[in-house]
Amino acid sequence: MKGKTEVHLGKIAKNGKVLILAMDQGLEHGPRDFNSKNIDPAYVCDIAAKGGFTGFALQKGVARHYKDCYSGNVPLILKMNGRTEIVPKDEAYSSPIASVKEAVDLGADAIGYTIYVGSPREADMFRDFGVIEREAHDYGLPCVVWAYPRGKHVPNEKDPAMVAYAARVALELGADIVKINYPGSVDAMKWVVASAGRCKVISAGGSKQPDGEFLKMVMNIVAGGGAGLAVGRNVWQNDNPMKITEEIKKIIFK
Ligand code: FBP
Questions:
Q1: In CATH, what number is assigned to the domain containing residue 103?
Q2: 179 catalytic residue (yes or no)
């Protein structure tokens, strides 16, 4: 595999559409995101294994300890960096915590990387990602970039112009898929998608919303040209995760 230069999305897309279940929140937000059921990673792994997702985004600790709960049933997207929310957002930086070799050893089908566009630490994250991106692509692993405008120079993380800028940054840095925060409307989404060019755009789900409002957002993401979602809380915090997953799939893969 090493030396392969052409990157295909492979298993993490189905007919060009993407539906990733994300469970890196334990590091990013801590246990506050969980209840007595979903605090157990095996519960969320089961949803990932049975839900028909095109990818499952995990940090390496959960990926390794719970491999038996998801492996073979859903492609792994190994998150390569992370941070806790205890550190203030002003100097936002997400530190590398895994190597591409570890991703390969864990059987990952892609790698995930967070970049805080506009942060005073942006240059460090560009440099860190540059090393990982080159190596991942050498192994033929697609790169999914979580591109979030953040830090003391960013007054509004969800400003559509900033979201479009972050999406473009991901294209420029070599991402195959960029994950953004929903910019608020179909038109804003269209501009984000245009800005990202041939890098596919998917949206985060965000904090838990009532099903109807959440599904309307998913429709707008697709209507705006988005390739899909990388969703966490709106699935595994839902009382009926399989039902909401089916509804999401109808919109994305129809
Ligand atoms: P959600 O769908 O639950 O919002 O998950 C998407 C996600 O990008 C996670 O992968 C990540 O842990 C989290 O959101 C980061 O959120 P924040 O905006 O607080 O950094």
A1: 3.20.20.70
A2: yes
